[in-house]
């Protein structure tokens, strides 16, 4: 990182968030994951308080995380600003912490810190012109293209519900979308939460009560194709978002 400037990279990402044209990539791409995390820290410093984290896979093989600002967490039914035409959505579950979780926590402590689980949508919209063409480490620096989390209803009896598929349904503007659901077991999310407690504290962003962790896409990412309302459900739990 001796010649890489995380602040300059973050400035490019923040400029796009403020309306600048999306570039093909960063002028200088992060040389490694430590550099990408350094950019994430600079971006969060520019956006304000953190408060949300996502499980993400770098190049589909290596598990990492992206940190998102609390300002990009909304409750279902709200209307959000329109996203670019290439935006996508993922249907996920979100763990909500009911207690701080310090570094060094074990699986039992991580499990006990989870106060509730909600059905959720992750909005995916890169700050680059084509997220599939940008350098993967640039995408990681851009918080893995996350553009927001929409929290839905609580999932009852989530200990058992989350271990397998949830019979999820998805619709755009009232029309059902054909989907393929992938299981994201709770055990994997708790394992990740143990790792995240150490990582978050090392980043100067320790896990606090009220923080949100989305646990990996059960559906998606799927292009929204200009939809003005996205809705998902699993049993009696629902989540939806509309776009201006």
TrEMBL record:
The molecular function terms in GO held by this entry are: 2-oxopent-4-enoate hydratase activity
Q: Does the keyword Transmembrane helix apply?
A: no
Offer a single GO CC term for the protein: cytoplasm
State the superkingdom.
Bacteria
A Pfam family this protein belongs to?
FAA_hydrolase
Where would I find the Fumarylacetoacetase-like C-terminal domain in this sequence?
Answer: 81-221
Arranged from A to Z, the UniProt key words for this protein are: Lyase
The UniProt record lists the keyword Membrane: no
Please state what the protein is called.
2-keto-4-pentenoate hydratase
Species classification: Bacteria, Pseudomonadati, Pseudomonadota, Alphaproteobacteria, Rhodobacterales
